[in-house]
């Protein structure tokens, strides 16, 4: 898949394209529905599939909100690639771009630059100055500029409307299994293993301390899978501030089951499977050690491992 950053680096694949537009943070079940339709239409018409997405998230520029992203940009791109999309065009979203009128967005970008023959969006997607562009504006322009428009309604799962905002709030509340259901896969963070304070080692459970660019780290103790050097390992991951030791900063540490090696500097990905409990403050480190043993037994039971 070709990854293009900015319109100035965009070189058309052919005279025409099949286009999906959106923020696509999380690539959740609703996004997947849009992207699979994109790939289907592209194959039917023998034209390249193209995703137009934005970074940073428009709400960070327009709304002044502190919005935490479900994925890093690299993770978003990788999930798009898995679907088989031909290319993704990442547009730097700034105030200048946000001031572009909706009609100009359609004519200058969708039609003239990207030469879209099919445009696919979620039915709630908005674009252009003051969010004036919507599905109605696209349909008004479709006959004039000879392209088709598909508006995809939200996916509903277990009577809940799947959305990035619901997934964000679920993750921040530590509701990992709900978030996973809405994503259609396990939530994942990635980063590198750094040297910590060796608290886990002193307790008898040496952990990999993880430094990550992910903005949302669900709090608590979780059954996880760790990926190192393209190999997966069952693991137990704690996210919190180690209240037993009166720390303030949030740390991420994974105990990799049945792996005893130096991991400093290694790249690591962690998939969150199931929450065991909230982080707790214990009277003594020994009490904490005993609880970790219980947590570890639950993780091993999950993975059907023997100690």
From TrEMBL:
<dbReference type="InterPro" id="IPR015865">
    <property type="entry name" value="Riboflavin_kinase_bac/euk"/>
</dbReference>
<dbReference type="InterPro" id="IPR023465">
    <property type="entry name" value="Riboflavin_kinase_dom_sf"/>
</dbReference>
<dbReference type="GO" id="GO:0009398">
    <property type="term" value="P:FMN biosynthetic process"/>
</dbReference>
<dbReference type="GO" id="GO:0009231">
    <property type="term" value="P:riboflavin biosynthetic process"/>
</dbReference>
<dbReference type="GO" id="GO:0006747">
    <property type="term" value="P:FAD biosynthetic process"/>
</dbReference>
<keyword id="KW-0274">FAD</keyword>
<keyword id="KW-0547">Nucleotide-binding</keyword>
<keyword id="KW-0288">FMN</keyword>
<dbReference type="InterPro" id="IPR015864">
    <property type="entry name" value="FAD_synthase"/>
</dbReference>
<dbReference type="Pfam" id="PF01687">
    <property type="entry name" value="Flavokinase"/>
</dbReference>
<keyword id="KW-0548">Nucleotidyltransferase</keyword>
<comment type="pathway">
    <text>Cofactor biosynthesis; FMN biosynthesis; FMN from riboflavin (ATP route): step 1/1.</text>
</comment>
<comment type="similarity">
    <text>Belongs to the RibF family.</text>
</comment>
<dbReference type="Pfam" id="PF06574">
    <property type="entry name" value="FAD_syn"/>
</dbReference>
<keyword id="KW-0418">Kinase</keyword>
<keyword id="KW-0511">Multifunctional enzyme</keyword>
<keyword id="KW-0067">ATP-binding</keyword>
<dbReference type="InterPro" id="IPR014729">
    <property type="entry name" value="Rossmann-like_a/b/a_fold"/>
</dbReference>
<keyword id="KW-0808">Transferase</keyword>
<dbReference type="GO" id="GO:0008531">
    <property type="term" value="F:riboflavin kinase activity"/>
</dbReference>
<dbReference type="InterPro" id="IPR023468">
    <property type="entry name" value="Riboflavin_kinase"/>
</dbReference>
<keyword id="KW-0285">Flavoprotein</keyword>
<dbReference type="InterPro" id="IPR002606">
    <property type="entry name" value="Riboflavin_kinase_bac"/>
</dbReference>
<dbReference type="GO" id="GO:0003919">
    <property type="term" value="F:FMN adenylyltransferase activity"/>
</dbReference>
<feature type="domain" description="Riboflavin kinase">
    <location>
        <begin position="182"/>
        <end position="304"/>
    </location>
</feature>
<dbReference type="GO" id="GO:0005524">
    <property type="term" value="F:ATP binding"/>
</dbReference>
<comment type="pathway">
    <text>Cofactor biosynthesis; FAD biosynthesis; FAD from FMN: step 1/1.</text>
</comment>
<protein>
    <recommendedName>
        <fullName>Bifunctional riboflavin kinase/FMN adenylyltransferase</fullName>
        <ecNumber>2.7.1.26</ecNumber>
        <ecNumber>2.7.7.2</ecNumber>
    </recommendedName>
</protein>
């Amino acid at each position: 898949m070709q990854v293009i950053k900015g319109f100035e680096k965009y070189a058309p694949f052919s005279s025409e394209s099949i286009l999906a537009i959106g923020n696509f943070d999380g690539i959740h079940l609703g996004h997947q529905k849009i992207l699979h339709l994109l790939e289907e239409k592209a194959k039917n018409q023998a034209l390249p599939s193209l995703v137009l997405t934005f970074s940073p998230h428009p709400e960070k520029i327009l709304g002044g909100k502190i919005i935490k992203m479900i994925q890093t940009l690299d993770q978003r791109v990788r999930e798009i690639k898995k679907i088989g999309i031909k290319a993704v065009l990442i547009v730097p979203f700034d105030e200048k771009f946000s001031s572009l009128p909706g009609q100009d967005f359609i004519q200058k970008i969708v039609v003239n630059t990207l030469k879209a023959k099919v445009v696919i969006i979620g039915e709630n997607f908005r674009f252009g100055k003051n969010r004036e562009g919507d599905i109605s504006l696209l349909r008004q322009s479709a006959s004039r500029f000879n392209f088709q428009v598909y508006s995809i309604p939200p996916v509903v799962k277990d009577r809940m409307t799947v959305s990035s905002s619901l997934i964000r709030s679920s993750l921040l509340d530590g509701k990992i299994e709900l978030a996973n259901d809405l994503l259609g896969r396990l939530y994942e963070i990635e980063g590198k293993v750094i040297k910590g304070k060796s608290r886990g080692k002193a307790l008898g459970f040496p952990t990999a301390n993880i430094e990550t660019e992910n903005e949302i780290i669900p709090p608590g103790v979780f059954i996880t899978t760790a990926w190192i050097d393209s190999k997966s390992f069952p693991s137990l991951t704690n996210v919190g501030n180690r209240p037993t030791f009166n720390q303030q900063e949030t740390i991420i540490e994974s105990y990799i089951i049945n792996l005893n090696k130096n991991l400093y500097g290694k790249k690591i990905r962690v998939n969150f499977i199931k929450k065991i409990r909230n982080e707790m403050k214990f009277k003594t480190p020994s009490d904490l050690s005993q609880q970790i043993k219980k947590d570890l037994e639950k993780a091993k039971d999950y993975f059907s491992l023997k100690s």
